[in-house]
Every structure is written in structure tokens, then in C-alpha cells.
């Protein structure tokens, strides 16, 4: 189980990034144009694109990507479980990068249209968020499935159930860590709070997203290092 620990720990940062689907992505959407004709789109409903990406990515992965990659790797599953997890980590960082860029554009519009103090909706369509939701869902397909298979196959036979549950614990710890980071950022940024609760136009949510991109970029090479050093269990 100690051999699994570094791989396990890398999942905590992934969960921090993935948790933004249900938190700050929604907050970002609240200050974007959400009307479609006479209908107002609830910002939380864009989470369906996370699910949609899973429904699209899984068959594409099984029917197209695996057979293609298998020709080069000779591995039945195409990628190893660790490679699949690494791809998921990379895609999650790309998702946060897109979110940061969208927020930069939104804040620029807010400044140009003098909407910073008023906190009014910025006329940037909420559908610009779709790529970040889609990428995060795709990253989840790679990371979560790879993680489940890796911990089940590599854990000692007598504690396989325990190790599988242990792997899922990273989701909980990632959510707690995300809350801690937000609280710490709010405290350190003081009056110039990056994430004001009532008016994101007067904040810098883009800075927070870039911070998560940085954490993801630090986490990825650490994961690669321990993955290369990892010795697989003998079957």
C-alpha cells in the first residue's frame, strides 16, 4: 500500500480541479449572458456537458482510440492504467486553462462596458463555458477509470476492497482542499478579493483558475516521476 501512496496522492489535486464543475464554474456562469430567447439558462445545468462528454468519449475511446494505440503499444487496453491517469491529469489542466481564458475575456468585457462596480451580467454567452466542462468530463473518463483499474489490480489481494475505497477518498480530500484554498486565497487577497461572493466583475476569478493550472502543472510531473519509478505487482 505504501507503493501506491504517491499515485494516490496525485488524485487529490485532480479532484481539486474537477470539483470546480460544481462550484466556481457555476459562479462564473452566473455573471454571463444566460438567456436563450425568453428562457433563462440556470448556470448549474451546464454540468450536463460534463456528463455528455463522458457519453461521447467512452465509445470513441473503446472503438477508435484503443485499437489505434494498441498497434503501437501492444497493450490490450491501449494505454496502461498509469498512462490513462496521466492523460486525465493533463486534460484537467487544459480545462482549467480554458476556464481562465474565458474569465479573462469576461472581465475585460466587464471593464470595457463599465460593469465592474454594478456587478451586472456581462454580455458573454454562457455557452463559452462548454469547452471547459467538456474537457473536464473527458479528463474524468481517463483518470477515474484508470484509477479504479490501477488500484484494484495493484493492491494486495487481501485488501483490494479497502484500496479501492482508499482511492475514492481522494475525491473527498480534493473537495476539502479546494475549500481550504479558496478560504486561504480570500484571506490573503484581503480587500482585493479574487472571488467576491456578490460581484465577480470586481474580482479576479481568472487568477484563481491560473493558480489551479499551476497546481495541476506541478502535480503532473510529480505523477509522471512516481509512475516511471513504480514497480508493478507480480501476477
TrEMBL record:
UniProt-annotated location(s): Membrane
Membrane topology: Multi-pass membrane protein
Gene Ontology cellular component list: membrane
Principal subcellular localization: membrane
Keywords: Membrane, Transmembrane, Transmembrane helix
Transmembrane segments: 6-25, 87-106, 126-145, 166-187, 207-228
PANTHER family linked: OLIGOPEPTIDE TRANSPORTER-RELATED (PTHR11654)
Family: Belongs to the major facilitator superfamily. Proton-dependent oligopeptide transporter (POT/PTR) (TC 2.A.17) family.
Name of protein: Protein NRT1/ PTR FAMILY 8.4
Naturally occurring in which organism (per UniProt): Cardamine amara subsp. amara
Lineage: Eukaryota, Viridiplantae, Streptophyta, Embryophyta, Tracheophyta
Amino acid at each position: 500500500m505504501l507503493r501506491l501512496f504517491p499515485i494516490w496522492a496525485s488524485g487529490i489535486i485532480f479532484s481539486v480541479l474537477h470539483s470546480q464543475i460544481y462550484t466556481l464554474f457555476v459562479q462564473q456562469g452566473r455573471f454571463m449572458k444566460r438567456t436563450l430567447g425568453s428562457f433563462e439558462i440556470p448556470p448549474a445545468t451546464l454540468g450536463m456537458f460534463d456528463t455528455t462528454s463522458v457519453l461521447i468519449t467512452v465509445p470513441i475511446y473503446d472503438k477508435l482510440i484503443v485499437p489505434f494505440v494498441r498497434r503501437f503499444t501492444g497493450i490490450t487496453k491501449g494505454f496502461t492504467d498509469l498512462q490513462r491517469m496521466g492523460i486525465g491529469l493533463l486534460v484537467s489542466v487544459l480545462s482549467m486553462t480554458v476556464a481562465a481564458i474565458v474569465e479573462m475575456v469576461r472581465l475585460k468585457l466587464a471593464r470595457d462596458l463599465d460593469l465592474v462596480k454594478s456587478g451586472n451580467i456581462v454580455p458573454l454567452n454562457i455557452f463559452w463555458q462548454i469547452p471547459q466542462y467538456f474537457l473536464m468530463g473527458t479528463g474524468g473518463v481517463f483518470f477515474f477509470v484508470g484509477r479504479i483499474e490501477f488500484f484494484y489490480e495493484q493492491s494486495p489481494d487481501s485488501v483490494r476492497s479497502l484500496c479501492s475505497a482508499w482511492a475514492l477518498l481522494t475525491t473527498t480530500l480534493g473537495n476539502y482542499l479546494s475549500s481550504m484554498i479558496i478560504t486561504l486565497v480570500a484571506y490573503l487577497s484581503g480587500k482585493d478579493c479574487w472571488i467576491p461572493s456578490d460581484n465577480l466583475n470586481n474580482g479576479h476569478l481568472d487568477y484563481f483558475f491560473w493558480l489551479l493550472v499551476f497546481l495541476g502543472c506541478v502535480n503532473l510531473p510529480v505523477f509522471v516521476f512516481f509512475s516511471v519509478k513504480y514497480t508493478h505487482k507480480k501476477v
